[in-house]
Amino acid sequence: MLRELKEAFRRFHEEGVLLPTNYKEKRVSWLVRLEGEKACLEHLGRGKGVKPIPAPDRQRSGKASENNLKPYLLVDDARYVLGIPEKGKEKEARLLHRSFVGLLEEACHETKLPALEKVLQLLKSLKVRTIKRQFLNQGGKPRDLVAFKVDGVLPTDLDEVRDFWSRFLARKLEKEEGYCGLCGEKKKVVSTFPREVVILGQKCQMVSFNKGAFNSFGKKQTENAPTCYACASQVVDALDYLSRSERHHRTLYWEAKGGLQNQLAVFWLKEPVTVPSEGPAGSLDLEAALGGLLSEEVGPDTPLPDLAQLRELLKAPWTGSQWPTHLDEVSFYLAVLSANKGRLVVREWFAVSLGRLKEAVARFLEATRLVGPRGEDPRPMAIGALIQALGEANPTLARDLIRTAFLGAAPPQELLLALHLLRNPKLLSPSGPKEWGRLHALMAAVKLWLFYKKEGTCMAELDREQRNPAYLAGRLLAVLEEAQKRALRYRVKQTLVDRFYGAACTAPAATFGNLLRIATTAHLPKVGSELRKMVEEILAALDQAGGFPRTLDLTGQAEFALGFYQQRAELRAKSHKESGKEAQ
Amino acid sequence: MAGVTVKVWGDFACFSRPEFKVERVSYPVPTPSAARGILEAIFWKPEFRYEVRRIGILKMGTPFAILRNEVENHMVQPFFVEDKRQQRASLVLKGVAYLIEAEMVLRPQATDPIAKYWEQFARRLERGQYHHTPYLGTREFPAYFAPPDGEEPDGSLDLDLGPMLFDIAFVEDPARPQLTFKRPGKGEVKGYALPLFFHARIKGGWLEVPKEKYQELYRLEGGHAPGT
């Protein structure tokens, strides 16, 4: 994965989307403005309301001591910048401030930048006392981030400062000589990776050997996995960008308590690909569209991916003058990551060519494509929607579905949990838009399990020619329910589906006799001929297919559920149309 | 020199990447040093060493994630395992099979001809004898082994795997005393372990191991090199 991240670094670097080497976006709460001879303090706010700025970053952990002082250049918390102590930790604050000033002196000496000299002069002068007083009077806290702006410019934005920071970290981290495991060259290798990445709110080292049992051959930390400074910085920068960019990541599983359960998927193409499309834009960003397969929920700045458009695209032959050449060979990379006690965990990793991926994704989209519960046009379903609908706290399910969608592996058996959920009357009769969406996704999960590996069968909508007894029984239940509702003029609190769905989908032969008796005597005589005809047609087809099955296994129950859902969707669509006509 | 070919297979395998050897991620195929470890489990003497020439991929295996409770420290007495628990994830391979082709080369201290060792190896391979259980990367994943049965790798399998661990050179260097190891004729010496890498490519279902890497290894290990 690190090798591919190194390649990704080159791509993102060319695109100009990366932060400077070993910089990180930070939300600064206080700004010390230096204009001419004047110095003043400005409070920018706290938390998410503050716009983040790129600032130097490095790996920093453990209790601060003479041997463990790691200040950030120019932007750090008030303990480092101004020496503001936490309660009872005055000595520590003095130590931290001294290290911050020491680093600034080194930067001044090496870069000879007037802006840095001005900051250094301020910190060494008596003016700093006024700044400190202002800071405390305005409610500043020791852990608030403080930055400097000299004559309207953030010194951290200067190229000389960026270069110094990179050189400085290299000097600090490079230790023994060895072969770099990423570029293969004999170089000095780093003792630890330059900085951490943040995975779902948890800081972690990409390569970490933080316990005794992990070390081998008398080596410590990253010496166990020799990596040169340039390679280490590049892979961290690339992964940091991927995990921040809405375009390149999706949360697969998240719990507030954190830990290994939480999973983040990062994905990217070896090169950006835009392909012609019939959509309004005339072209489709393939990377964003493939991300939509993971989850359609994206941030406000990213265009909503359209899975239906992606499906059309995958069905078309990838040829023509507008199409990029060698599209089949472009690689798609996906990693599922977690954080475990400060260490990065790779839960899933694959690289697959678009040529191979195309078939698997097309099959997945086709298998999840299903009519809406109220007869809306069929549409495919994203992995995130399936997981959310199943409500399954099983992180493995997400990874298994990713393998199905992108690599063509068999769908996970856990999808059949949907059958169990569908026996809940509340789920079968949704009340709000969210519940309607959940029912749709649950049925898409059932359909995916049923049809993923079957050639030529799609069944996105009601199939009247289908002679599968389980499917026909499901359809019949939907028609009988509709008859009951119409006969009672829709003033029914509990329909026969609410009471008998579970029994009907497991033992149809024993259940339908009673249901048909009630329907023929109490409901069907009161409704129009349309439903009676439907019942007759379905019963005739069932007779041909060998009658009601005595019991249904899981596959049969899935077919039953699909028949029931699709028949219900059609009846709902029809009644919706008719009520629309009446209103006109 | 004498060539040996062994078919190995197993339910699971984990050839840990150095960068992900804590929260383990396996290379997609065995490293030459893992292949050497399998051969050494079957038969090993200090008089010779195996040089892995190529590894045939009969079954690539599918990645499979597992989560286990492990411990954070090496064993020291007293050891209360509940205090040292570490939950660690591993991305391993499931259902793998390989053909290992290697050569036995004599070391300088050897006095008998290589044929002696080669025949011993062939006899042990035929009988299924081993010194310790051969394993696929980590000891919890045992390897089954047998003489080749004619099964050939998939000729259409071509993959560029990038840098891969070749082997570890034990370099004698009193100025860098990270560990102590033994050298024939010298007893215990101080030095360090230097991981060597090579650019791994699978062509026609075979992972070719560059012969010259062994020369580099012998050069780094000084007098520890084979005789010829």
Automatic annotation (TrEMBL), chain A:
<keyword id="KW-0614">Plasmid</keyword>
<dbReference type="Pfam" id="PF09709">
    <property type="entry name" value="Cas_Csd1"/>
</dbReference>
<protein>
    <submittedName>
        <fullName>CRISPR-associated protein (Cas_Csd1)</fullName>
    </submittedName>
</protein>
<dbReference type="InterPro" id="IPR010144">
    <property type="entry name" value="CRISPR-assoc_prot_Csd1-typ"/>
</dbReference>
From TrEMBL, chain B:
<keyword id="KW-0378">Hydrolase</keyword>
<comment type="function">
    <text>CRISPR (clustered regularly interspaced short palindromic repeat) is an adaptive immune system that provides protection against mobile genetic elements (viruses, transposable elements and conjugative plasmids). CRISPR clusters contain spacers, sequences complementary to antecedent mobile elements, and target invading nucleic acids. CRISPR clusters are transcribed and processed into CRISPR RNA (crRNA).</text>
</comment>
<dbReference type="GO" id="GO:0016787">
    <property type="term" value="F:hydrolase activity"/>
</dbReference>
<keyword id="KW-0255">Endonuclease</keyword>
<dbReference type="GO" id="GO:0004519">
    <property type="term" value="F:endonuclease activity"/>
</dbReference>
<dbReference type="GO" id="GO:0043571">
    <property type="term" value="P:maintenance of CRISPR repeat elements"/>
</dbReference>
<dbReference type="GO" id="GO:0003723">
    <property type="term" value="F:RNA binding"/>
</dbReference>
<dbReference type="InterPro" id="IPR013422">
    <property type="entry name" value="CRISPR-assoc_prot_Cas5_N"/>
</dbReference>
<keyword id="KW-0540">Nuclease</keyword>
<dbReference type="InterPro" id="IPR021124">
    <property type="entry name" value="CRISPR-assoc_prot_Cas5"/>
</dbReference>
<dbReference type="InterPro" id="IPR010155">
    <property type="entry name" value="CRISPR-assoc_prot_Cas5d"/>
</dbReference>
<keyword id="KW-0051">Antiviral defense</keyword>
<keyword id="KW-0614">Plasmid</keyword>
<protein>
    <recommendedName>
        <fullName>pre-crRNA processing endonuclease</fullName>
        <ecNumber>3.1.-.-</ecNumber>
    </recommendedName>
</protein>
<dbReference type="GO" id="GO:0051607">
    <property type="term" value="P:defense response to virus"/>
</dbReference>
<comment type="similarity">
    <text>Belongs to the CRISPR-associated protein Cas5 family. Subtype I-C/Dvulg subfamily.</text>
</comment>
<keyword id="KW-0694">RNA-binding</keyword>
<dbReference type="Pfam" id="PF09704">
    <property type="entry name" value="Cas_Cas5d"/>
</dbReference>
